[in-house]
Amino acid sequence: MDPARATSRHAPASRPPAVPLLEPVWFAGDVQPALPWTFVPEVVAEQDAVGPELRQLAAALMAALVEVLSGQRSSEQLERWVEPELLSLVEHLQRARSGQDLKLRSVRVQAPHTQAVEVSAHLRQGAASRAAALRISWRRGQWVATHLAIALRPGIVHQAGWISPLAG
Q1: Residue 86, H or E segment
Q2: What letter does residue 149 receive in the DSSP assignment?
Q3: Which fold is adopted by the domain 52-161?
Q4: Model pTM?
Q5: Which 3 state secondary structure label does DSSP give 105?
Q6: CA distances from 64 to 10, 61, 68, 87 (A)
Q7: Residue ranges per structural domain of the chain
């Protein structure tokens, strides 16, 4: 959306006025107070351990799932790459037409450890933003999608798969 074309409108009189929950704190001078750290946090590396091939696979798999949800791709094409429980959820959502007009806007890929990759996605459905998270794990000698959480309606998160707390 073009910020120059943005408009605003007043809230209806039936809505109560906004009430600040906390009193604002005013700082004297140019320096804001520092947080009271009890420890010094470690610096996080800019690049994580996800290689370019694995990053591309993760993004392509998320894109393929969105295409199945929106009806642009057959779910049979994902059978090799997706656990049956996830595929069942995606097929159910496709039949319910929950992913109609769904488009992938962006993905973020990270590796919590060497045997798993997590993908978070920003989706658009018309003018509304949607979200999805996908976990891809190393299973049976290949990368397989093992967990999916997707929010296609406000307040409803569809989930499939299970992440073992003992998996390492």
Answers
A1: helix 84-95
A2: E
A3: Nuclear Transport Factor 2; Chain: A, (3.10.450)
A4: 0.68
A5: strand
A6: 42, 5, 6, 12
A7: 52-161
